[in-house]
Design a protein that fits this description.
Chains C, D: It comes from Plantactinospora sonchi. The complex is a heteropentamer, with 2 copies of chain A, 1 copy of chain B and 2 copies of chain C. Chain A is globular and about 45 Å long. Chain A has a 6-stranded mixed β-sheet with strand order 6-7-8-3-9-10, sandwiched between helices. Chain A has a 4-stranded antiparallel β-sheet with strand order 2-1-4-5, with helices on one face. In chain A, a hairpin with a 4-residue loop joins β9 and β10. Chain A is α/β, with parallel strands linked by helices. Chain B is α/β, with parallel strands linked by helices. In chain B, about 45% of the residues lie in helices and about 15% in strands. Chain B has 16 helices and 10 strands. In chain B, strands 7-6-8-5-9 form a 5-stranded mixed β-sheet, sandwiched between helices. Chain B has a 3-stranded parallel β-sheet with strand order 2-1-3. By secondary structure, chain C is an all-alpha fold. Chain C is built from 11 helices and no strands. Chain C is globular. The two termini of chain C are about 40 Å apart. Classes of the chains: A alpha/beta, B alpha/beta, C mainly alpha. The interface between C and D is large, with 93 and 93 residues. Bound molecules: adenosine-5'-triphosphate (2 copies) and magnesium ion (MG) (2 copies). One magnesium ion binds next to α1 of chain A. One adenosine-5'-triphosphate (ATP) sits at the interface of chains E and A.
């Protein structure tokens, strides 16, 4: 297993300009360091630039200013050690579910029995064991999202970037998958950045929570989560949890 | 015709749609331009609406569809159409000799049709009229057609290229093509087909229905055409300039070169086919020779062009020939000579 | 408002989940029923063809009645002639179509993914296309002789362009999302072509191929018109030269049938290749 | 793994949000820079054209050097001739293209949305397409005379099919989601066409139109070959007949330029019509 | 204003069959009545058939068995009095935001200044006043979802069907929009069916909550919400709220 890598974001700016309209500043001088193997969540109002930031981290969008480093690599293009789960499932309609999951491996080289087995395990974990040979259009919205998650996990990345991975899931499934994700993160040296709209999910899973605010998109607070490394459902009733959640929520109320 | 034909029920005056079996105006048909410009058609009360069509078949089909009154097919296609039951009559014998010949490079040892034995002959296509003519000529000259190799070389540049590169020993093609090639700088020699000299070529046809209802118009058209031919023969350069004026697209290339080209084509056709001795001697324009028609019919039948045996009396008429020739040739020659 | 449209799915567009819920019927029976409209129309056309020329007193050498044409098509001797020549023409068309397809798809990908290459090369391809093939075919004969090559070249020239344009248009209409998915997996250009752009453009490529197939047939005929020993183009000219209009129509029918068969083959392949897509999967 | 690809966006595909962030440069300067590759290629082709025929000792009547062709194109008298005839041909092509476009789009919508109609009619349209236009054009002359009609008809026959196939393919590839949006709003069939299928199929229709435009030019020439008084087809044949190969090439150049201009016009209209789409908006 | 209409669902079944695979039973004998002007929420695990049921109500999917009546109309096709917000935004990429919103009105006839003004108001309410002339691809995921909501509301329907309308929104925005939706519902005679993954959202907004369970999709419980008609944020702390939420949650735990 490879060693965990840190992420360093320095003064990142991003503006979008369309002819005939004022520029949109999606990100304004964002500074953030994610430690090697750290789990950081990002919360913030809709449209505050969370997705844009994640895309910059993934090397998909070039920042208008500033720099991102992952390990000692300056991010200028996507890298195979970084896995991104998009906000919308983005499954290829012509591939069966299992082939959609295996796509990253296919792009990395050959696929053998071992890889197929691994895809089956992932599908099983997300409760879709019977759906491997379906086409995406035969799946419900939440099912598609789970398939996209499997795809992000299959290549065993060292950096995992998740954009609202559980938005379309019911509370029960969501809790289950939160736990699974936490376990995966804890058992590997995986630097993880998660975008979520659920404050309790953010607190429950991460070591730090980044709060962003819109127009222009910037970081307004970084909250340490004072919970033990090992997380479980009962922690939600702890005073530390409530406190942390309240502090995060306060930023929303103010806005 | 029923539509698009002459308007005058008395047969005097109206419009004649004249279907020409080459896709563009060439010096072959310079008489058409002269007839229009010098008023020979107008003198007959006629307006000529000329249409250039892809080939003889199209002309005859257009005639069957009532879109053409008088057409200029080659006789083989005209006979094939009659064979199919179309109402077609040959009315004006224009090109009285075959207008196709064997072209060889001037350095070629071949000088007679007989020399072609065992050689490779380029033809436009196996089914073209010229191919049939070539075979007939070879047979007449005693050459075994089975010992000759025919190669399809198409028309124009590919044919000339095949000849120059020695892919074929000769090319059978129409006069207009060989003279254009010569004008373009090719060193060619022509060998006329033997034994088939009376197989006349491009000829004027109409339908008997049209002949009956528009007799005067047909007579007038023939006469105007004869007059225009005489005029053009008397002053070819002026005639060609008239053609250029009325058909600007027919002038290709620049000044002198264009005139040389056009004159070459005009002369080739006039010398070899139209202005042959009997015409100049007897001054009889448009007349068919019964025996030549019979020869043609036999030839067509032997070569599978016609399935039934047509009768000569049914396929042509000389009835209007006196009218075609009823004009003062000397006056026209004089007028032509004075034209610039 | 208490009434509703009487029939569901009256838009004629596929209704999601509207797959047949009853047990599948015997499929040949269904296939026959599906083709009834087509067959009825065919019968109507054929009947009209047989009787309209007679009623309008159109002469046989202008527009022969069906029976005259069928006569040609049932005489063993002419049929034999048609078949051997049809094979020659089909062969030229298929080879040219194959080359045109491969060239068109590859060029489409290249020009679709490299904007600079597109700007540099595409105008010349358009200019090349605008040349009348009837005018350039003789040049091919001069350069490549009288055999297969010049005919195949004419076919390639005609078949290439629709495939190119459709591939390019498909490639350029790709979703940003999907491209980003591949970019984030550091897909090579070839992988991007093979696993994303190719399946994505496939509906467009098939559309281009359908157009290319009929153009390939026309190209083969045009090539044969310029110079050829055999092929339906030669037969066609022969029959035009001998004023055998019924024969011309017989050849035209054969060409139509060849065109239809090629189209059918393409649509069958497409049905398999695009089985993942509802709208394509449902129809042939 | 501590290295990364040296350049961002090396796939050549548009990067989302990669719009220029610096101030827009003077646009003519950018336009010139964008077209440099094309111009360089043009220069190379022209130079080759001038010198290769001489070097390979090709005779002028087979392949004239550029200078001979330019000579034709600069003589005022021939130029005048070319221009007036080019206008005739362009006119025929444009009218036929317009009719073919409208027919193709409408038929494409009809056949794309009514599967029964598609099964009934489409095979006959394919069969019709497989008929060589050079062989049917004479029939049009018999039926419609010698004027504009038969030429326009040949153009329509050729231009119609690519538009039809592409429209149909576009219509049939519509997302179920979007159709459901319109169905849930009880959109009439016309509204579905106008507001959903039309904008959706527009990229495909434009692809079909690009193919149709060059075919329209070919169709006009083929139509003129059968019967015409004027037009570039007439000039072309005239010059072929007199072995004026330089003249033939001059006409071919003019046809190429007309084709290019038509293509350019189409792409300009497309750029406006598809401005909402990144990949189309970014390029010409 | 038109009178509110009830919805009656009787024995609705829906199976999907794909060649070469066993049938999927998405819905099995679903019976449910929604009163005229009632607000009902549907919760259930991902893939349990919620979207399928909503599509049947909207007349988009024909049931394999059973019948749906809206008012005295048997649902056999979509109707203009029913408005459906899809699970994914489904915006037309070639229309600007405001034109996407106005689409239902355009399909119903002419659009005047009054309608444009109404679209502007809706955009303002969802916090996108400045984004009317953007193209959908210039919006973030949550922004697109809000635009889709505006589109569902603009035609002033009598039946409103919402498929996870707030899934991509942050907690703050979500609360705000919940309140707005409640106010809209209360002020008009609007029969509303809402699919949500948030149990508290379901309890907060609706008069009854329908709990569905998967494989095959069926209704396992219908829970009355014993809260006053007028809802506000504080109710979340009431014992009735907790009780109701617990009862609903119990079905998830069991599954
Ligand atoms: N391609 C683009 N072109 C123009 N503007 C864009 C583009 N992508 C994003 N934006 C703008 O940038 C801002 C931030 O968008 P982003 O998608 O990062 O938001 P987000 O925080 O992910 O929101 P959400 O929670 O709704 O997904 C928004 O105002 C959006 O309109
Ligand atoms: N078009 C289809 N073809 C085949 N199966 C389908 C289709 N649509 C839905 N299904 C199946 O029907 C079941 C119910 O799907 P539905 O979309 O109604 O779930 P849902 O409750 O909305 O889930 P989610 O909360 O994830 O959106 C799923 O098992 C799904 O796979
Ligand atoms: Mg986002
Ligand atoms: Mg759903």
């Amino acid at each position: 297993m490879t060693a965990a890598v840190p992420i360093a974001i320095q003064g990142v700016r991003k503006t979008f300009s369309t002819a005939g309209r004022p520029e949109t500043t999606a990100l304004e001088s964002v500074d953030l360091t994610v430690g090697a193997g750290e789990f950081v969540s990002i919360v913030g109002a809709s449209g505050c630039g969370k997705t844009t930031l994640l895309r910059v981290l993934a090397g998909l969008t070039a920042p208008s200013g500033g720099e991102v480093r992952i390990g000692d690599r300056v991010v200028a293009a996507p890298d195979r050690s970084v896995s991104l789960m998009f906000q919308s499932p983005t499954l290829l309609p012509w591939l069966r579910v299992v082939d959609n999951i295996l796509l990253p491996l296919k792009l990395r080289g050959r696929i053998g029995a071992h890889e197929r087995e691994r895809a089956g395990q992932l599908l099983d974990q997300v409760g879709l064991a019977d759906f491997g040979d379906r086409l995406p259009r035969e799946l419900s919205g939440g099912m598609q999202q789970r398939v996209a998650l499997c795809r992000a996990l299959i290549a065993a990345p060292t950096v995992l970037l998740l954009d609202e991975p559980f938005g379309a899931l019911d509370a029960m499934t969501r809790d289950q998958m939160n736990l699974d994700l936490h376990r995966l993160w804890a058992s590997t040296s995986l630097t993880t950045v998660l975008i979520t709209h659920s404050i309790s999910e953010a607190v429950m899973l991460s070591q730090r929570v980044v709060v962003m605010s819109p127009r222009p998109g910037r970081i307004v607070d970084i909250v340490d989560v004072p919970l033990p490394a090992e997380r479980h459902g009962e922690l939600i009733d702890s005073p530390q949890f409530a406190e942390t959640a309240a502090r995060i929520r306060s930023h929303f109320a103010r806005h | 015709g029923p539509d698009g034909g002459p308007a005058g029920a008395d047969g005097k005056g109206g419009t004649i749609t004249f279907g020409i079996s080459t896709p563009t105006m060439t010096a072959n048909f310079v008489a058409l331009a002269v007839g229009k410009e010098e008023g020979f058609f107008a003198d007959e009360g006629l307006k000529v609406d000329d249409v250039f069509l892809k080939d003889s078949g199209t002309v005859l089909q257009a005639m069957a569809g009532g879109k053409v009154d008088i057409g200029t097919p080659t006789p083989d296609v005209a006979f094939a159409a009659m064979d199919q039951g179309q109402d077609v009559k040959l009315i004006y014998n224009w090109a009285r000799r075959p207008v196709a010949a064997f072209s060889v490079l001037d350095t070629s040892p071949i000088t007679t049709v007989r020399d072609l034995a065992g050689r490779t002959i380029g033809v436009q296509s196996i089914s073209a009229g010229t191919t049939t003519l070539a075979k007939a000529s070879l047979t007449q000259a005693g050459v075994d057609v089975n010992r000759v190799k025919f190669v399809e070389v198409g028309l124009g540049a590919p044919a000339l290229d095949a000849l120059q590169r020695g892919r074929v020993d000769t090319v059978v093609q129409y006069d207009a093509q060989s003279s254009a090639q010569i004008s373009a700088g090719a060193k060619l020699r022509l060998i006329s087909p033997e034994g088939v000299e009376d197989l006349f070529a491009t000829t004027f046809v109409s339908s008997s229905a049209f002949l009956t209802s528009n007799s005067a118009a047909v007579k007038g058209f023939g006469r105007a055409w004869s007059k225009a031919s005489v005029w053009a023969l008397a002053n070819p350069e002026a005639a060609i300039r008239i053609m250029w004026k009325l058909y600007p697209a027919s002038k290709t290339g620049d000044g002198d070169k264009a005139m040389q080209n056009a004159l070459a084509i005009f002369k080739a056709r006039m010398d070899s086919a139209v202005n042959v001795d009997d015409v100049t001697a007897k001054k009889i324009w448009g007349q068919y020779d019964e025996s030549a028609v019979q020869h043609w019919l036999d030839f067509a039948h032997q070569n599978g062009i016609t399935k039934s045996s047509l009768k000569t009396s049914d396929v042509y008429t000389n009835a209007d020939v006196p009218d075609y020739n009823n004009f003062d040739a000397a006056a026209i020659q004089k007028a032509a000579a004075e034209a610039k | 408002m208490t009434t509703s449209a009487p029939t569901a799915g009256s838009t004629g567009l596929p209704r999601s989940g509207e797959l047949p819920t009853s047990k599948p019927r015997r499929s040949w029976a269904r296939a026959v029923r599906r083709w009834i409209p087509s067959l009825v129309l065919l019968a109507l056309i054929l009947v009209a063809w047989q009787f309209v020329p007679g009623l309008t007193k159109t002469e046989e050498f202008i527009f022969p009645p069906l029976s005259a044409v069928l006569d040609r098509l049932t005489t063993p001797e002419t049929l034999q002639l048609y078949f051997s020549n049809a094979w020659v023409t089909t062969y030229e068309a298929l080879i040219g179509l194959g080359i045109g397809l491969v060239l068109g798809v590859l060029t489409g990908f290249l020009l679709g993914t490299f904007p600079a290459a597109r700007r540099a090369v595409y105008p010349f391809l358009v200019a090349l296309q605008a040349l009348p093939k009837v005018a350039v075919a003789p040049l091919f004969v001069v350069w490549f002789g009288f055999d297969l090559t010049p005919k195949v070249l004419v076919v390639v020239l005609l078949a290439f362009f629709p495939v190119l344009v459709n591939t390019m248009s498909g490639v350029m209409s790709i979703d940003q999302d999907k491209v980003d998915l591949f970019r984030s997996n550091v897909a090579s250009r070839w992988q991007m072509w093979r696993h994303l752009l190719f399946p994505w453009s496939l509906p467009g490529i098939f559309a281009g191929l359908e157009v290319a197939a009929v153009l390939a047939l026309l190209g083969a005929i045009v090539g044969e018109f310029v110079s050829a020993r055999e092929g339906l183009g030669v037969v066609l000219q022969q029959q035009q030269n001998t004023y055998d209009t019924a024969g011309v129509f017989a050849v035209l029918i054969i060409l139509s049938v060849i065109g239809l068969l090629m189209n059918l083959a393409i649509r069958l392949v497409r049905r398999t290749a695009l089985s993942w897509s509802t709208s394509e999967g449902a129809e042939l």
